[in-house]
Structures are given as C-alpha cells and as structure tokens.
Amino acid sequence: MSKRIALLVLVVVFIGIFVLAGCSSKDSQPNGKPDAAQDGPVFGGALKVIIDAEPPTIDMHVSTTTLVYNVGWHIFEQLYALDEQFAIVPMLADGMPVISDDKLTYTIKLREGVKFHNGKEMTSADVVASIMRWGEVSSNGKALFKSVASFEADGPYN
Fold first, then answer.
1. Positive or negative: CA dihedral 97, 107, 130, 116
2. Alpha helices in the chain (DSSP H)
3. What mean pLDDT is reported for the chain?
4. Are 10 and 70 in contact (CB under 8 A)?
C-alpha cells in the first residue's frame, strides 16, 4: 500500500470517527441540537485516537516511516509548518528567513519566550544542535547537508 493510500485511509477513518461522534444521542438536547451547538465551542478534554501500529520510535531523525512522522508531528514543533492552503508559515521561527543577495546565507530569527517542558527557554543553540543531529543521523539530513557549507547560531535568537 503506498503512503498516499495509507494517508487517505487514515483521513477517512478520522472523518468517520468525528461524524459518528457527532451522531451520539446522549450529547443531544431535546431539540436535537448538541450541547456545543447551543453554548458555542467547548475547549479542553481529550481526543482518543487509535493508530494501526505502535511506532518503533518517536525519534523522527532516525526513522523514515510514516507512522513515526504522524506521531512525531503531534509531539515536536518545527521552525516552519504548513497552513490550511499548504503555504509555509512560521511556527518556532519569528518570520520567514532573510536570504542574502547571493542566496547562500539564510538567517532565521526565532520566536522569543518559547519554553521547553522543563521551563528552559529555546535558543538558537538548541535549534542548531537539533538540526546538526538531523544532518548527521537522518538519511534526508545527510543528503541535504552535502550542500551546506556551515550551520551556526548568531546570537541567542538567530
């Protein structure tokens, strides 16, 4: 089964779960409208999702499996993400990269105040360490880093 078909099946399953969850009679008022439709959106709670296998790892740097990426994308944040129209948007970055005139140097400013789970603030040293590890252990990183002359921090947020 190709990755595209597997992804399509996963999307269809998720849509089915949400449709069936919305049809539950225990959540409806006598007028047939669900509680959330009357009171507005309700935030919080838990969404329980079943995946078809256990990921062998959650280390996205060392794996090429779709399962690891599907789980990892919900745990780890990237410098950039895709919006609803699949346009690149900053996530941990504080804007799009500044590119030198010769197109050889990219400077990415980081969002300030982003905290790790332990309360430590994310800095450019953390980003450099993560991307350098990716370049050393990931098959994609190794291939791309063949074209990188250097990768370094220039201050705490660049």
1. negative
2. 3-22, 35-39, 66-72, 124-137, 139-145
3. 83
4. yes
